[in-house]
Amino acid sequence: MQKMLDSFSEKAKIYLTDIEKRNVFPTKEALKNLSHLDIDLQDTPISPETVLNELDAFGSPATVASIGNRYFGFVIGGSIPAALDANLLAGVWDQNAFSETSSPLGAYIETICAK
């Protein structure tokens, strides 16, 4: 698990560091390369490392750089560090937040947001 977290962390750091150096919208080549992700299901599992590497290799270049300061599209740009951290932690928690039974935390946060 630690190896995967380290690999993810390194890929995320590179993505965030390089965001200002790349095009805001993906290149035609990056969009074409998304086809590498369209594969048939296998009889045996693909390693988590391979999945992460392929998502990074083909997915990262095909994202819109909406977190960068050169993005003037919808009002969604900017990645606030606290929001990014909270989103990552929520992903690790993997809660089914529809009720207090399945996620007391999720239900409580929902009541806060409803105020």
Question: Can you walk through the features of this model?
Answer:
The protein is mostly helical and 115 residues long. The protein has helices at residues 2-18, 28-33, 48-59, 81-93, 104-113. Helix 1 (2-18) packs parallel to helix 3. The longest helix is centred in the first third of the chain and has 17 residues, at 2-18. It is globular. The N and C termini lie far apart (38 Å).
Instruction: Provide the β-strand percentage band.
Output: under 5%
Q: What ranges have pLDDT less than 50 throughout 5 or more consecutive residues?
A: none
Outline type: globular
- The mean pLDDT is 90
Distance between the termini: 38 Å
Number of helices: 5
Rg for CA atoms: 17 Å
Number of strands: 0
Order of helices and strands: HHHHH
| Helix proportion range | 40-55%
Number of domains: 2
List keywords for this structure.
50% helix; single chain; globular; mainly alpha; 5 helices; 115 residues
Compile the SSE list and pairings:
Elements: H1 2-18, H2 28-33, H3 48-59, H4 81-93, H5 104-113
Helix pairs in contact: 1-3
Quick structural summary:
Helices cover 50% and strands 0% of the residues.
